[in-house]
Design brief:
single chain, 118 residues, mainly beta, seven-stranded mixed β-sheet, four-stranded antiparallel β-sheet, globular
């Protein structure tokens, strides 16, 4: 069973910052596209940002200019730096690893709560 371990969530005031971290087993991390998703109550899970093995990055329009995704391949860790947080960023954030070797496999973290107060 593949385990993705997340940390860094919490409560912050609007305009503040948080950094999320997610560590995966090296055998998975080095061949994966890593991503962060979020899910607010009553909403579907949505993609926030993704980064491929070679560093190609994609952001949802709602976080462009405020969030930064990065990966440290030596530490098997992906980060999400979140600045200028808004109340609408409040959600459970999930780390995701996608491996495509003929078929696609998704691995998920347990989720970490981010709450932004107004």
């Amino acid at each position: 069973q593949v385990e993705l371990v997340e940390s860094g969530g919490g409560l912050v005031q609007a305009g503040g910052s948080l950094r999320l971290s997610c560590t995966a087993p090296g055998s998975i991390f080095r061949i994966s596209t890593m991503a962060w998703y979020r899910q607010a109550p009553g909403n579907q899970r949505e993609l926030v940002a993704s980064i491929t093995r070679i560093g190609s990055i994609n952001y949802d329009d709602s976080v462009k200019g405020r969030f930064t995704i990065s990966r440290d391949n030596a530490k098997n860790t992906v980060y999400l730096q979140m600045n200028s947080l808004k109340p609408e960023d409040t959600a459970v954030y999930y780390c995701n690893a996608v491996v495509v070797l003929g078929i696609r496999r998704d691995y998920w973290g347990q989720g970490t709560q981010v709450t932004v107060s107004s």
